Amino acid sequence: MNSDRVDPAELAVLRAAFATDDGAEAPLGWEAVEAFEAEHGIALPEPYRTFVAEIADGSSSGPPEYGLLSLARLPDDWGDDQRARDLSKPFPLTATWLWEDDEDPAPDTDERLEQVCNDGSIVLGTDGCAMNWHLIVTGPHRGHGWQISDVGAVPFGAQFGFTTAEPGFGGWVRQWAARRAWYDAA
């Protein structure tokens, strides 16, 4: 996974996955993507960066279950009680954290939870019930996808043991497209 340079083969897979997607939003274009990056002090990881600039800025048909959000949006159930998001601060995790299983939580657990939800990631969408998919934009896991819910945070990709899919945005979309094709054929 290279989050700094787009792989033409990976981009071809993304184009194919959304070629017949009636729910796909128009792409933002490079000027809007670069303006977003400048505003937030980040560089979006590839292939997501090229995806939103040239292919689609979200899709009502997914992935995930309730659709792929536009670049600057948050899920409807996000809530107003969280602190401001800061995409330029590094995402704080590099391994699964199930805070629901913490028998003796650290004194800074609440602050760390705020960081997990608000620092260094954009929200790709939701599977419902506050199970949100994030794309990490800063920190050691830049380019990786994570599912963050009310019980914990789990990285996406075969190397983390929770799926056989490749990590990152491209692997996440490929898994969704394969599942969608399987259901369509059934």
Protein traits:
single chain, 186 residues, four-stranded antiparallel β-sheet, 5 helices, 31% helix, 10% strand, SMI1/KNR4 family protein, Knr4/Smi1-like_dom
Percentage of helical residues?
25-40%
How many domains? The number is 1
Order of helices and strands: HHHHEEEEH
Shape category: globular
Assembly classification = single chain
Q: Give me the Rg, rounded.
A: 16 Å
**Strand fraction:** 5-15%
Span of the ends, CA to CA: 31 Å
Protein structure class: alpha+beta
How many DSSP helices? 5
Strand sequence of the main sheet, in spatial order?
1-2-3-4
Describe the largest sheet: 4 strands, antiparallel
Which whole number gives the mean pLDDT?
89
Low-confidence stretches at least 5 residues in length (pLDDT < 50)?
Answer: none
Pfam families: SMI1_KNR4 (PF09346)
Organism: Streptomyces osmaniensis
Protein name: SMI1/KNR4 family protein
InterPro entries: Knr4/Smi1-like_dom
Could you describe the 3D structure shown?
- This protein has 186 residues and is of the alpha+beta class.
- The protein has one domain (8-185).
- The chain contains five helices and four strands; from the N terminus they run ααααββββα.
- It has helices at residues 8-18, 30-40, 48-55, 109-118, 168-185, and strands at 121-126, 132-136, 145-148, 153-155.
- It has a four-stranded antiparallel β-sheet with strand order 1-2-3-4.
- α1 packs parallel to α5 and α2 packs across α3 (48-55).
- The chain is globular, with a radius of gyration of 16 Å.
- The relative contact order is 0.16.
- The mean pLDDT is 89.
- InterPro entries: Knr4/Smi1-like_dom.
- Residues 31-140 form the Knr4/Smi1-like domain.
- This is SMI1/KNR4 family protein.
